[in-house]
């Protein structure tokens, strides 16, 4: 269960968002964040001139988005999208915990999910139905608290937790440093000889704080593809 840890909780006015799902993440907010980031890094305006401002990337909070993120792990955007379309069709447009548990592993495998990912999404569905996990409480946590809680879920690593924090919770200062596309974009942007690893990429992203979510969106666009297309 999610632990009521005071050190990981903040009042709503102390957590930086670029917009919660119920309010929407407007393009103007991303542009504003990037304009502030440009004051921290004079190289960013050249990237914006080259590729333009990125579009918002909005996902609903909840089970279906977590399944979509688990599905996208270690897959190309095209492959992940194809599998997700088949999952939605199998479940008539609504990927819910109960529907997932009512499908056989064979049915889920026919959609393209691996055996390991099937165990992950079924395990997550069981947790939610048993109320061993309450996703609504994540909105009260700090960024590090959200990542800590989500990575307790089997099959949810830091990358997955950060993607959820960005796209579903609208957190403003997240940079998924182990994303290969972002690492490659940072390498190109910084004119590095080799692609930086996760630790190096996270360190390089610190200069963009507290606007790293919007910079990540820009870097994905600079690279040429984005997660959860």
Write out key terms for the chains shown.
229 residues; mainly alpha; Endonuclease Iii, domain 2; 0% strand; disordered N terminus
Q: Describe it for me?
A:
- The protein has helices spanning 27-40, 44-51, 63-72, 77-90, 97-102, 105-111, 115-129, 143-150, 158-167, 180-190, 198-205, 212-223.
- By secondary structure, the chain is mainly alpha-helical.
- The chain folds into two domains: 20-57 and 173-223, Endonuclease Iii, domain 2 (Orthogonal Bundle); 63-167, Endonuclease III, domain 1 (Orthogonal Bundle), CATH 1.10.340.
- α2 packs across α12.
- It is globular.
Brief overview:
The chain has helices at 27-40, 44-51, 63-72, 77-90, 97-102, 105-111, 115-129, 143-150, 158-167, 180-190, 198-205, 212-223.
